[in-house]
Amino acid sequence: MKIKNRKVREKRPRTKRRIKIPIKKEELKKGIYILPSLFTCGNMSLGILSILSSVNGDYIRAAWFLIGALACDILDGRIARMTNTTSVFGMQLDTLSDLVSFGVAPAMMIYMLALKHMGNIGIAIAVLFVLCSALRLARFNTLSQTGEIHKHFVGLPTPASAGVIISFVLSYELLTPEEVSFRFKTIPVLMEAMPSFFKFMPIVMVVLSFLMVSNVPYLSFKKMKLTKVRTIELLAVLIVLIILIIVYPQNVIFLIYFVYAVSGLLSYIIRFFIRKKNKQNAFVSNDKTEKAEENEM
């Protein structure tokens, strides 16, 4: 008889398999990146210069310093994402810069301009705005570290809240010195409404403060890529918007920030009533089905 040779498999010691965790592209790195950090430092520097100008009573110059801070804030984030140099250090530095330029500086500007005569109430409103800015930025950092991708901002962003105040100051022609020869074109209807808006500035400050710490969703433009294919209608709208900003820079910038601040609140209210109506319709339909089942029995 032929005996078949059985191949004896040698038992090899089991080795632990290493599970490779995929590294997210948006993971924050450790270290200092010079280029985006320079723009972030420029943001903070312009915010400090704005505070000094507000103390000296030059509100127009203070507002233009903050416009420059807004530009630096946009550029540092864009550069960091384009060059893949987002870092923990950059995020923390950006938060501190935003608190100075879009929290403390606008509050100081409006306090010196419109709230100083209100005494302790004016101080309380200015402090509330700064505190809500700090809470908004702290929550944003917390959500960013979770690694989740959010299509919308939770609460009104601090640069947008400051943008409403900054653009208002630029649009308020009574603040422009008479000796300034060069003036931008303005929209007459909007300029007539500016004094009324100035009277409600304390209420506006309180509303902006609570919007920053609210759960109202606001559209985020950070993930928007201009290189992707877009519709011709969007291109036409952008061209018209750029032309309006060039012709009426102060007024159009104010309208953009004001509409953005109101848009989130309006959409939140509309969604609330739609959900409430859907719940009522669902309750009515369930009630009808229950009555129909009782009649059949």
Any chance you could write out the topology, listing elements then pairs?
Elements: H1 34-55, H2 59-82, H3 88-115, H4 120-145, E1 152-154, H5 158-171, H6 188-199, H7 201-212, E2 217-219, H8 232-247, H9 249-296
Antiparallel strand pairs: 1-2
Helix pairs in contact: 1-2, 1-3, 2-3, 2-5, 3-4, 3-5, 4-7, 5-9, 8-9
Task: Describe the fold and architecture.
Residues 6-10 and 18-26 have low confidence and may be disordered. Helix 2 (59-82) runs antiparallel to helix 3 and helix 8 (232-247) crosses helix 9. The N and C termini lie far apart (81 Å). By secondary structure, the protein is an all-alpha fold. It has nine helices and two strands, in the order H-H-H-H-E-H-H-H-E-H-H. Helices cover 68% and strands 2% of the residues. The longest helix is centred in the last third of the chain and has 48 residues, at 249-296. It has a two-stranded antiparallel sheet with strand order 1-2. It is globular. It has a single domain (34-281), classed as Four Helix Bundle (Hemerythrin (Met), subunit A).
In the sheet with the most strands, the strands line up as 1-2
Overall form: globular
Mean pLDDT: 79
- Ends apart, CA distance between termini: 81 Å
The count of strands amounts to 2
Q: Which stretches are poorly predicted, pLDDT < 50 over at least 5 residues?
A: 6-10, 18-26
Output the structural class.
Answer: mainly alpha
Number of domains: 1
CATH architecture title: Up-down Bundle
Major sheet details? 2 strands, antiparallel
CATH topology: Four Helix Bundle (Hemerythrin (Met), subunit A)
CATH class: Mainly Alpha
Number of helices in the DSSP assignment? 9
Helix percent band: 55-70%
Task: State which percent range the strand residues make up.
Answer: under 5%
Order of helices and strands: HHHHEHHHEHH
Radius of gyration: 27 Å
